[in-house]
């Protein structure tokens, strides 16, 4: 897709420190790489295609007549698919100007209405006057957040009383598995210092799992991004500390779409899922969490 001019930080008031701005620039590069593998996404959506998996749809539930915000929405594909579930209004927020530019064009070209805002997640949630019935986040979210407690407080702030936050994410344990599904060589589950590396072209690495077309080479990215490891316990505790009620927590022995470790194999069921090889002990590769703001 051809897009509008890249949004400029100075034009929209997006204020980032040097570290976060470097991560934004890495995501800009990665976003272009990822979308290069996905073909005509507007035609895919117009034809009734969806990027959502059954887990997200089940946990989101009935969205008819509700206002939804997709936090850290990236290029908006999932946001637009959520809009087609009957939501009254969908707002997507992301700090990547490349992603927001793409999302706005995708909305226009697919004919699916949604509003996309350029904003760093914590800053946006802590200042917006908007309130929502449902907040949603999916896949690759809190790893880019340094201050997890502040992020959870932001989620609580943007929910209406009785509102829910639905979060589907790769299990933090999955990054500890090595290429051969071996804990040697994996990331420390309890690591407290940040990781500094470019955002990889995981769409190319995941093939049809993330709707990649053909077998083109992975895009290059030499801009390091900064990410953090948060354990599942830390995440749940952050939500509890923000005054939210834990409604549901599920763990899944597979990874939707993204091949989070090279040693994973396709499920073979045509469901775009990745699992540990036969004979290896299963471990959680993904979780689903629903929390709510008390009435």
Describe this structure in words.
This protein is α/β, with parallel strands linked by helices and 295 residues long. The protein has a single domain, classed as 3-Layer(aba) Sandwich (Rossmann fold), CATH 3.40.50. It is 30% helix and 22% strand. It contains ten helices and twelve strands. It has a seven-stranded mixed sheet with strand order 3-2-1-4-5-12-8, with helices on both faces. Helix 7 (121-127) runs parallel beside helix 8 and helix 8 packs across helix 10 (232-241). The protein is globular, with a radius of gyration of 18 Å. It starts with 8 loop residues before the first helix and ends with a strand.
First-to-last CA distance: 43 Å
Q: Helicity level, as a percent range?
A: 25-40%
Query: What's the architecture in CATH terms?
Result: 3-Layer(aba) Sandwich
Q: If strands are numbered along the chain, what order do they take across the biggest sheet?
A: 3-2-1-4-5-12-8
Structural class: alpha/beta
Number of helices: 10
Overall radius of gyration = 18 Å
Q: What shape does the CA trace take? A: globular
| SSE topology string | HHHHEHEHEHEHEEHEHEEEEE
CATH superfamily: Vaccinia Virus protein VP39
Low-pLDDT regions: 1-6, 8-13
Largest sheet, in brief, is: 7 strands, mixed
The structural domain count equals: 1
The proportion of strand residues reads 15-25%
Number of strands: 12
Mean pLDDT: 89
What is the CATH C level class, in words? Alpha Beta
